[in-house]
From TrEMBL:
GO MF annotations, alphabetized: metal ion binding; molybdate ion binding; tungstate binding
Family recorded in the similarity comment: Belongs to the bacterial solute-binding protein ModA family.
Cellular component terms per the entry's GO annotation: outer membrane-bounded periplasmic space
Oligomer status and interactors: The complex is composed of two ATP-binding proteins (ModC), two transmembrane proteins (ModB) and a solute-binding protein (ModA).
Record: residues binding molybdate: 37, 64, 148, 175, 193
UniProt keyword annotation of Metal-binding present: yes
BP GO annotations: molybdate ion transport
Entry annotated with the keyword Manganese: no
Signal sequence range: 1-19
InterPro entries listed in its UniProt record: ModA, ModA/WtpA
Name used for this protein in its record: Molybdate transport system substrate-binding protein
Gene3D superfamilies: Periplasmic binding protein-like II (3.40.190.10)
Length: 258
């Protein structure tokens, strides 16, 4: 009887060790705060990372300004992916970025979209954007807080178009909300990222803003100085790897360094 019990314990231990061999030593939850414009790419990356690592990503998607303020107020995030450098700078200046972990991931471009089908236009100083809008609104993310809105306002100011449309701007708390306003026809035109426009069948890209009209649109990522998950480093490594890079490119982003 004692020998049977011993053999049973040995068999049970063998099964446990075999089952554990295919999983990380300690699967954890990793809280990721990511810019709303990354929604499609991050959703794909989340599925692939969880399948390969066994860790569980808890992803919060919103405007970079909202996420940065939450982090500054003590939100327990492990990784922050911002849609512009300035909001990451603020988080880093507060001592909340782990030294040596910040990296620029991808770049984006800024486009003018229209509801439904619409002809292309040349975006420059001669564009009669106010006339195109008529009595309608220009959908944009918050122009003083959300990166897409900040870039959009900067581009319009550079091209001398801002004063003519400022009173017609309908501001939203993130770029995806601005995109939906155009897709549903609540606004005839909007300014969004190219990657957002490609993901929405209800809009047409009618023009791309010149790169020189606004600051470079770069998305930095970094681990945060929380006492949270030890899975932060593996996730950042995955973001820089071939599977994540391919996911970004499928959504229209340009991977930094390529």
């Amino acid at each position: 009887m004692m020998r049977r019990t011993g053999r049973f314990h040995a068999l049970f231990l063998s099964l446990v060790l075999s089952a554990a061999a295919g999983r990380p030593a300690a699967a954890e939850e990793i809280v990721v705060f990511a810019a709303a414009s990354l929604t499609n790419a991050v959703t794909e990356i989340e599925e692939r990372f969880e399948a390969e690592s066994g860790h569980d990503l808890i992803v919060s998607l919103a405007g970079s300004s909202v996420l940065a303020r939450q982090i500054l107020q003590g939100a327990p995030a492990d990784v922050f992916i911002s849609a512009n450098a300035e909001w990451m700078d603020e988080v880093e200046a507060a001592g909340l970025v782990e030294p040596g972990t910040r990296v620029d991931l991808v770049r984006n471009s800024l486009v003018l979209v229209a509801h439904g089908e619409a002809p292309e236009v040349e975006i420059g100083r001669s564009l009669n954007l106010a006339g195109m809008l008529g009595d309608g609104r220009l959908a944009m993310a918050l122009v003083d807080a959300v990166p897409a809105g900040i870039y959009g306002k900067a581009a319009l100011e550079t091209l001398g178009l801002w004063n003519g449309v400022a009173e017609k701007v309908a501001q939203s708390d993130n770029v995806r909300t601005a995109l939906r306003l155009v897709a549903t026809g609540e606004a005839p035109y909007g300014i969004v990222y190219a990657t957002d426009a490609v993901a929405e069948a209800g809009v047409t890209i009618v023009g791309t803003f010149p790169e020189a009209s606004h600051p470079p649109i770069v998305y930095p990522a970094a681990a945060l100085t929380t006492d949270g998950s030890t899975g932060k480093a593996p996730f950042l490594a995955f973001l820089a790897g071939p599977e994540a890079r391919a996911a970004f490119e499928r959504q229209g982003f340009v991977v930094v360094g390529e």
